[in-house]
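Annotated sample (chain length 69).
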Amino acid sequence: MADWGPVLVAVVLFVLLTPGLLFQLPGHNKVVEFGSMKTSCPAMIAHAVIFFGLLTLFLIAVDVHVYVG
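Output written by the structure step:
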């Protein structure tokens, strides 16, 4: 049986935390911009740190498992 939990969590977080898709932290003109579809280097670093923190939380603390087959 394969554990698809980590893969599923990582893909969902990657899509949701893409800078500029839903929100961008820090934004170009404001601290937080929503739906700007633009990005910058500080935004990529901030979103990478948020991604790593949430991925660690879900995989280690919450211990998400999805078994298929």
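Annotation: The mean pLDDT is 89.
Annotation: The first strand starts at residue 2 and ends at 3.
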